[in-house]
Amino acid sequence: MTLPPAGWQAPWAITQIGLQRFLRKKIVIILLFVAWTPALLFGVGFFAMGTIVAERSITQDEQIRSKLVPRPALPIDTVKLFSQLLGRVSTQDIVGKQLEELLPLFWRVSFYQFVWLESWVLLFLALAVGPFLVTPDIRSRSLSLYFSRPVSGLDYALGKAGIIFTLFGMAFLLPSILMYLSSIYFMPTNTYIRLTIYLIPRIFTIYMILSTVSTYVLLAIGSSCKTFWTFTSFLIFITLGVEISISFVNSIISIYPSDIKIANSYNLISICSILNDFNCYLTGINQELSRLNALFRHEWVADPISGQMGRLGDMPLFGSKNPFWQTAAAAFLFAAGSGALFWRNLCRASR
Amino acid sequence: MAPLISTQSLSKSYGKVTALADVTLSALPGSLGLVGPNGAGKTTLIRILMGLAHPDRGEVRLFGLDPAKDAKRVRARVGFVPEDDAYWEGLSAVGAVQFAGRLSGLAASDALKRAHRLLDEAGLEEERYRLMETLSMGMRQKVRLAQGLVHTPELLILDEPSRFLDPQARTAFTEWAGRLQKQGTSILISTHELGDIEKLCDRAILLVEGRLKAQIDLPDLLKRSDQWELQPIGEMEKATAAMRSIGITPEIDNDTFLFMMGDNDCTKIVFEFNKRKIGIRRLSRITPSLVDILPQFLSRPR
Question: In what order do the strands lie in the sheet with B17-27?
């Protein structure tokens, strides 16, 4: 008697075949390269700075080290310059700081910006992958080929989700881990490892949230439309989906508590706030001012749509006043709605 | 022997359209043909058997299992070739057959070996490395047949299998299906090509407007034909008189008589012709085709 395959076999086969197809696409390879570039650059920067600190420690006498604070002019200026270029660091934050104090700050700022950058890469990756996730199966009527085999709708969805999770893992999780490892390499003392180890589960949480929300939305819209309309819909809907995730990211990883509130009060709806941040990053315009502008701009967009939604950070949502959980709940609600839509479309298409 | 397929009062509607109405049937392992005009409910019956659609009323069993509740166990034992030109984009022919095998639980290496063997049998040489979307519809149909067989199913369900095949490929397909039957694979074939049913099936199920019109035991039915032909030696007038003398009024087609009679009348003809000294060149039963028989069933009231 022929036995049905083990539960993981069909989803794994679907994921593997899907990945093979996507990794043959030039745009996906380019996006993965772009995703790794900042991690590699930051990694090289950390490595270089770490080397400077290490060499200095070796060459100086222990007694002198305890009395004098070594200040090689070039490295500290470089660190200050990088920190300011990266944004999110005011002049008073770095004035009078020593290298050992500045390096962790630089690391936190770098990491924050890295995650922000990766969100954009993931957005484009979602756009490159999403329209080709389910639509070709509907177009070529191959759903009947899946479901005439020991493959359930859940296996199919898990297999397709596996593609997104793997690609997002390659674009976000792996470079994030690399970033973290290269950042702890340059830290002056091991205390920093103890203080920052919480970031590993947080990186994983961010990755899971981004991948889950994106997967559901991609599957939902991908199963609804033809390729062109899928792509167009992504430009509108996925942006929102990823944006919710970005505000979630902000609330987890933000170095300034005020960011959490502000991020939640405007990032939830409007892409213009992210574009504004992007602009600030490029031009070095004062962050606080630009955020206030974005908040102002957002409110007149959001208020007619949803009344007080522009002030989500100030009001209780989903029974919680904690912006972190508010955003997480919003993201999962979005994912659940998309999941239901995908399931309906799948049932309809496989008839 | 336990039935392979059994249904009891099976009904299914899509809105106001009745696809199946009170269908009760039973089929032993072997080869079964599913015939009927367009919209007769053949594909719906197949989809219910595969667990892809659920009946509104009634029961269905395949291998003694309920396809709706034990969908995975049922599908693991079934190979299915859909009627559509369905294919996986972006995969080569051999990759598609291998993928089908993997979805059915085969290891990747085993699935690849089987894929190459089946594509050899299907006559796809270098074409097997081409992407599915670049193959002709006939080639894709061969790939789908290979996909249906890659996991060595106990039952192969074919929905319009020769639809995209050229005559040569169609002959090759019937030979291939015949070999499968000898190896013990049961076949359920739904097609408008009645010739395929005659060649491959022991039984045929006739569906009309969602209702089971007849379950036809093909070898018996074909043997039971009462139509004969006789070619006499000599004058046709004398032979005609001899036939009429025993109560048979034949149709004359050139030098051959066509007529209906029972097996017992055969000796009467031989005796009468011998008595009148008329030679017989040939006396044989005409084996009818399903095409000849089917209208009789279609015209019968239910």
Answer: B17-27, B5-14, B57-62
